[in-house]
Amino acid sequence: MYEGVWVTDYKSLKGLATALRQGLIEASRQKAITAGREGIRDFVYNYITGKEFMLHIEAVVNAYKQMSEDLDGEKRSMNRIWKKREKQIDTVLSNVTGIVGSIQGLVGGEKALPQVEPLTLEAIADEEEETLE
Question: Is there a domain that residue 121 lies in?
Fold first, then answer.
């Protein structure tokens, strides 16, 4: 480089031209990236500060609220269903226990009938301990 001008001989001309060409391509690419970056930055800023973005955010928040309300309603419904089912199960067990007790009373006590293991005091006590844990 002599006073701002590239000076070369004929043998080096092709290599120098290739190097200069690559330098110009890279410079052009960097300029395009920088210009694109400015444009993208402006676009993103305008989008975020615009009404469309706020409408999207509002829609997401509203969907979240609705999903949360639906989930709470489902929890209440399931708790109601579970309590009803629990009551039915308790009623069945109570009636089976009553039937076994009535039959034992009619035939002469516990010794006259085969033992129903899940209805023994020990089994019931073990079950209650497991429930408490």
Answer: yes
